[in-house]
Write a structure and sequence with these properties.
It is built from nine helices and eight strands. With 245 residues, the chain is α+β, with helices and mostly antiparallel strands.
């Protein structure tokens, strides 16, 4: 197993998220309409006053979200907005994706959270107005080594409705790991490939191969009100899915 390295200077690494937010809003307000080609990376990084590495990280997140696509040798294009399919209710309880698809035994979880005003992209993911959002990070470990990562967004109202005491961080973790997967809730999971896992996880390097399965997950109540919107990253070398038909 490759040695994991702890990253430093987290504030600097968050710069790509700010660039992502800027580009997301430019796409949403029509500055870059569907089907249009974004300016070249050289031009765009100069316009935004960021390095090309920072810009590429932001573009990777936009591509994850289906907002842009990269045509090799041509450039980055804005995708047409497609209506998302409705979440489907499965039989029985849905398992947390990291536990369901990671082949390594995970014996501990490191949790952190913060409360912030929602960005446009977070509001769109939650499909509702919320004055504040709880942003939760979880690093899943085996014998102290981080192997997978989850990033979740919860409307602040969900915290009150489910009586989650944020002074007790374990209550938030329990809700995200188990409570939100209540039998009557609906869950939609979209699986794709990502190279953004290491820099999204911030604190730790999860994979030397920089290759991840990304599960984008939305958990809703029966009335389709979103409870949690999450991104789960599992290194490709640790991913396995079993399908029973």
């Amino acid at each position: 197993m490759a040695k994991k390295t702890v990253k430093t200077n987290a504030e600097h690494k968050l710069k790509h998220v700010k660039v992502y937010d800027q580009l997301y809003e430019l796409i949403q307000n029509g500055t870059f309409p569907p089907g249009s080609r974004l300016p070249s990376e050289t031009v765009l990084s100069a316009q935004l006053d960021v390095s090309r590495m920072t810009l590429r990280k932001a573009l990777a997140l936009l591509q994850e979200d289906g907002r842009t696509k990269n045509v090799q040798g041509v450039g980055h294009f804005v995708c047409s907005r497609m209506e998302e399919p409705l979440a489907q209710t499965g039989e029985g309880l849905v398992r947390h994706p990291v536990y369901a698809y990671c082949t390594e035994h995970l014996d501990s979880v490191e949790t952190a959270f913060r409360i912030e005003p929602p960005t446009q992209s977070i509001s769109d993911a939650l499909k509702q107005y919320t004055p504040a959002v709880v942003i939760a990070d979880r690093w899943y470990k085996h014998e102290g080594t981080p192997l997978a990562y989850s990033l979740s967004f919860l409307p602040i109202g969900v915290i009150g409705e489910h009586k989650i005491d944020l002074n007790d961080q374990q209550q938030l973790a329990d809700y995200l790991e188990h409570g939100c997967y209540a039998e009557k809730n609906q869950c939609k999971q979209i699986c794709s490939y990502s190279t953004a896992g290491n820099f999204t996880a911030l604190t730790y390097t999860l994979s030397d191969q920089n290759s991840f399965l990304l599960i984008q997950e939305t958990v809703c109540q029966e009335d389709r009100k979103v409870l949690v919107s999450s991104k789960h990253y599992i290194p490709s070398e640790l991913f396995k899915i079993e399908i029973s038909l």
